[in-house]
Amino acid sequence: MKRVHVLIKGMVQGVGFRSFVRRNARNLGVKGFVRNLPDGFTVEVVAEGDDDSIEQLIGIIRKGPPGAIVEDMEVEYEEPKNEFNDFEILY
């Protein structure tokens, strides 16, 4: 089990990025959340899952959906807390 905290910067708000992350995370069996940060150009992801699924999700996030431009990504691994039941979009 692995937990990751990711900050994605660029043209990632208003382009379907959160829905894209949620759909892919759920397909991979990853739990956690995605949300826009108030600065207008950062999306935050906190995700837990098996090692392979987390690494796949990071790769998917790095590419982003059509229309998104990922300029920078900060990836930080943390101790799993097993606190999520699903993968959600937070508002």
What secondary-structure arrangement, pairings included, does this model have?
Blueprint: E1 2-11, H1 17-28, E2 31-36, E3 42-49, H2 51-63, E4 69-78, E5 87-89
Parallel strand pairs: 2-5
Antiparallel strand pairs: 1-3, 1-4, 2-3
Helix pairs in contact: 1-2
InterPro entries: Acylphosphatase, Acylphosphatase-like_dom, Acylphosphatase-like_dom_sf, Acylphosphatase_CS
Keywords: Hydrolase
Active site: 18, 36
Q: Which short descriptors sum up this protein?
A:
alpha+beta; 5 strands; 91 residues
Overall shape: it is globular
Broad structural category: alpha+beta
Order of the strands making up the biggest sheet: 4-1-3-2-5
Give the number of domains. Answer: 1
CATH topology: Alpha-Beta Plaits
Continuous helix count: 2
Give the oligomeric state of the chains in this entry, treating copies of one chain as homo and distinct chains as hetero.
single chain
CATH architecture: 2-Layer Sandwich
Average per-residue pLDDT, rounded, comes to 98
β-strand percent reads: 35-45%
Major β-sheet profile: 5 strands, mixed
CATH class: Alpha Beta
Helix content: 25-40%
Order of helices and strands: EHEEHEE
Give the radius of gyration.
12 Å
State the end-to-end CA separation.
Answer: 26 Å
What do you see in this structure?
One of its GO terms (molecular function) is acylphosphatase activity. It catalyses: an acyl phosphate + H2O = a carboxylate + phosphate + H(+). This is acylphosphatase. It comes from Vulcanisaeta souniana JCM 11219. Strands 4-1-3-2-5 form a five-stranded mixed sheet, with helices on one face. 27% of the residues lie in helices and 41% in strands. The chain has a single domain, classed as 2-Layer Sandwich (Alpha-Beta Plaits). The protein has helices at residues 17-28, 51-63, and strands spanning 2-11, 31-36, 42-49, 69-78, 87-89. It is an alpha+beta fold. It is globular. The relative contact order is 0.36.
